[in-house]
Design brief:
There is one protein chain. This protein is an alpha+beta fold and 267 residues long. Among the domains are: 5-74 and 219-240, no CATH class; 83-172. Helices cover 21% and strands 27% of the residues. A five-stranded mixed sheet has the order 1-2-4-3-13, with no helix packed on it. The chain has a four-stranded antiparallel sheet with strand order 5-10-6-9, sandwiched between helices. The chain starts with a strand and ends in a 27-residue tail after the last helix.
Length: 267
């Protein structure tokens, strides 16, 4: 569901409902007319009916107001002076081998957060070997640890003196609270953070580049930050589940009660 409802009227207001993950994607936000300012957001978590089953799906309802002053659309930055992301499997294999003998030059990062006992684990590892060891023994994993490693991010630090600072920064960054609430996953519980939170390349650079931080409820107008009013919907599963309760079994035809005289009529 990209968009369930979009409506324009003469007041210059646009009501728009869509997945919350669109709110965290700068490219999607920047595609919109900068003269439309997001003034209100209601986060909706419940509920959608799919093939007779009730699901929670993170969605937002936004109210946009057209103004003469445009928003400041900040460019998407995919770079940093202190490190670069190694691209391509061959280059990552070279980084893996070089990292076995050269210290504080490379570190690795999962493309998604992992949970252990419902606790989010740090996605960052000092070496490719450590990350592959972490993948070993994963239940249901068909790919090899090396295959999984080559799908991860590999950071190449330009100067050894910045290595610990960068490693620590990405290790303790609060990915769960920053991105988790905007990841769209079907669930059967209210307001649950997904167990699998994906991290994109753009989000990596947005997390560390000053001025491009992820601020979903703040927009910049005339050089000043404007806070967007936002709240949670009060609709939860308990208020709707009985109305849409799935009934199993075959529908049976109701029989008329026979009377004592056997003709279907009572005496």
């Amino acid at each position: 569901m990209e968009s369930r409802a979009t409506r324009m009227d003469t007041t210059g207001l646009d009501r728009y409902e869509h997945h919350r993950d669109r709110l965290k994607r700068k490219g999607k936000r920047n595609e919109l007319d900068p003269h439309y300012h997001l003034s209100y957001v209601m986060n909706i978590n419940c509920c959608y009916l799919h093939k007779g089953t009730l699901y929670n799906l993170p969605t937002m309802f936004g109210i946009w107001k057209k103004r003469d002053i445009p928003l400041e659309i900040k460019p998407t930055i995919t770079g940093h002076p202190e490190f670069e992301l190694v691209k391509g499997k061959d280059n990552k294999m070279l980084a893996l081998e070089e990292g076995k003998t050269v210290n504080k030059k490379y570190f690795w990062m999962r493309t998604a957060l992992k949970h252990k006992n419902k606790i989010v684990q740090s996605p960052v590892f000092r070496s490719g070997t450590e990350l592959m060891d972490d993948y070993r023994g994963t239940a249901g994993m068909k790919a090899t640890p090396l295959d999984k490693l080559l799908m991860c991010y590999c950071f190449k630090v330009h100067n050894e003196k910045n290595y610990d600072k960068l490693f620590d920064y990405f290790s303790i960054f609060n990915w769960k609270d920053t991105l988790g609430q905007f990841q769209s996953r079907r669930t059967k519980k209210d307001w649950t953070t997904p167990s699998l939170i994906h991290i994109s390349e753009v989000q990596i650079f947005s997390a560390i580049n000053e001025g491009s931080e992820f601020k979903p409820y703040i927009e910049t107008v005339d050089g000043e930050e404007v806070k967007i009013r936002h709240e949670r919907s009060k609709i939860v599963r308990n208020t709707v589940k009985n109305k849409y309760k799935k009934v199993g079994g075959k529908r049976t035809r109701r029989r008329r009660k026979r009377g004592h005289n056997g003709d279907g009529c009572g005496l």
